[in-house]
Design a protein that fits this description.
about 50% strand, 4-stranded antiparallel sheet, 7-stranded mixed sheet, mainly beta, about 120 residues
């Protein structure tokens, strides 16, 4: 399984970014997909997750109303639309796929390498 993130970068507070994750090497449409993030000096935390067919989503309280997770199973792509970004959103963002659970990390999941998002004036 391979997951490759793109779309990160530097943005001013209040700005927007759209992260993408391209999947290959596994049956994407059967996997729960998630975005995690890790800020400097902190642990990795769930940002958002989406079920295999896209009918169920889960968000961290800190991003509800600002971030939207979506997927395109035909293209094997996962997205995270991030609006009204805040400095506290600065982190490395990881794409994570798991065949067993939404929002949880198991021994059967796969990680992308991560992409930096920096929110700063």
């Amino acid at each position: 399984a391979q997951l490759v993130e793109s779309g990160g970068g530097l943005v001013q507070p209040g700005g927007s970014l759209r992260l993408s994750c391209e999947a290959s090497g596994f049956t994407f449409s059967s996997y729960f997909m998630n975005w995690f993030r890790q800020a400097p000096g902190k642990g990795r935390e769930l940002v958002a997750g989406i079920s295999a067919n896209g009918d169920s989503t889960k968000y961290a309280d800190s991003v509800k109303g600002r971030f939207t997770i979506s997927r395109d199973n035909a293209k094997k792509m996962l997205y995270l639309q991030m609006n009204d970004l805040k400095p506290e959103d600065t982190a490395v963002y990881y794409c994570y796929g798991d065949p067993q659970a939404l929002g949880l990390v198991t021994a059967f999941g796969s990680w992308g390498l991560g992409i930096q998002v920096t929110v700063s004036p």
